[in-house]
Design goal:
This protein has about 250 residues and is α/β, with parallel strands linked by helices. It is built from eight helices and seven strands; from the N terminus they run βαββαβαβαβαααβα. The model has no long low-confidence stretch (mean pLDDT about 95).
């Protein structure tokens, strides 16, 4: 029986992906900062483990507890809707510490077992904002674009060892808690020149009308990345992400 380890499973994309792999009969290791079973089905094939991807000791403990896995899904991440001019350095560092360095550290932690066994799949979940310039997400997009860049190189480096590496690029998903969680980092809403602009953009981000991404879209894209060796490196997830990928000249 195959085993998948998924980060960021407390809600949203990660939680839905864990559900899908359980439905498909896989062993699932779902990680989150504070382990809680809410939202996940009861199953003897499910393990919920604590993980802080910014903490090397936490990652080391996870590697030991998890043992051998077949697929690593790096889904955990944070957002911060702030104009570039007003972005606090501490917030920018937090974005890169989690989205880039945390993802890199998790990938490096599990690559040795994949390489030695000449088998395994790494799926890095980034964002379709890397396909199109948008306001308020400049630094967030930069952190995700950096993951895209190292993942593309990693795919070439791992090919001789029969280890597959893929990217899943979700679109905007107002139904998940990602946007609400990002509000903790919101900055500049009281700025005389930026306040109205920020309010207008945030309102648009919360609007569920038009093409958007739903959590099952992301789960299905991750499933394809994990199980279909013929998938391309970059896989859009959601109607909006697919449209942006097509506009950028990418393939699915």
């Amino acid at each position: 029986m195959s085993t998948v380890l998924i980060t960021g499973c407390s809600s949203g994309f990660g939680q839905e992906t864990a559900r899908l792999f359980l439905q498909q009969g896989w062993e699932v290791i779902a990680t989150m900062r504070t382990p809680q079973p809410d939202g996940l089905p009861v199953s003897d094939r499910l393990r919920i483990l604590s993980l802080d991807i910014t903490d090397p000791a936490s990652i080391a403990a996870l590697v030991e507890a998890a043992g051998l896995i077949d697929v690593l899904v790096n889904n955990a991440g944070i957002g911060a809707p702030v104009p570039v001019e007003l972005m606090p350095t501490a917030t920018a560092r937090a974005l890169f510490e989690t989205n880039l360095f945390g993802t890199l550290a998790m990938t490096q932690a599990f690559l040795p077992q994949f390489r030695q066994r000449r088998a395994g799949v790494v799926v890095n979940v980034t964002s379709s904002v890397t396909l199109k310039a948008l306001p308020l997400v400049g630094v967030y997009s930069a952190s995700k674009a950096a993951v895209n860049a190292f993942t593309a190189s990693l795919a070439i480096e791992m090919a001789p060892f029969d280890v597959r590496v893929r990217l899943v690029l979700p679109g905007r998903s107002p139904e998940t808690r990602f946007g609400a969680n990002a509000q903790a980092f919101l900055h500049g809403q009281d700025h005389p020149d930026y306040a109205d602009f920020i309010a207008r953009i945030i309102s648009g981000m919360r609007d569920s009308r038009g093409p958007v991404t739903h959590a099952p879209d992301v789960a299905q894209a991750v499933w394809r990345a994990a199980t279909d060796p013929n998938t391309p490196l970059r896989i859009p997830a959601g109607a909006d992400a697919e449209a942006w990928m097509a506009e950028s000249g990418g393939t699915t």
